[in-house]
Design brief:
3 strands; about 45% helix; three-stranded antiparallel beta sheet; 3 helices; alpha+beta; Split barrel-like
C-alpha cells in the first residue's frame, strides 16, 4: 500500500503549520542537536523527511517510523505522534 499524494500533502501542511516544535525536536533527536528550525518535506508509510535549518546551513534527515512501516494513514498518524513524543523525551 502507498500513501495517497493528497494525504501526504495534508500531513506535511499540518506538521509544518501546527507542529513546528515537534519537527524541531525530531531532527534534534536524530543527529542534528544544533538545529534551529525544521520543515517536514516528505512523508510515506516507511518514514518522514525533514529539511533541517542549522547554524552552518541546511541539510535533510530521513527518519524511519518506530516499529517499521505503517499499514495505513491511521497507523501513520500514530507513528508520527510516537516519533514526536519520543523526540521530546530525548529518545
Amino acid at each position: 500500500m502507498t500513501l495517497d499524494p493528497n494525504a501526504a500533502a495534508a500531513i506535511l501542511a499540518h506538521m509544518n503549520d501546527d507542529h513546528g516544535a515537534d519537527n524541531l525536536a525530531i531532527v534534534r533527536a536524530h543527529g542534528h542537536p544544533h538545529a534551529n528550525g525544521a520543515d517536514m518535506i516528505g512523508v510515506d508509510l516507511v518514514g518522514g523527511t525533514w529539511l533541517v535549518h542549522g547554524p552552518t546551513g541546511q541539510t535533510t534527515v530521513r527518519v524511519e517510523w518506530p516499529g517499521g512501516s505503517a499499514a495505513d494513514r491511521a497507523e501513520l498518524r500514530a507513528k508520527v505522534v510516537e516519533t514526536a513524543v519520543a523526540a521530546r523525551r530525548g529518545r
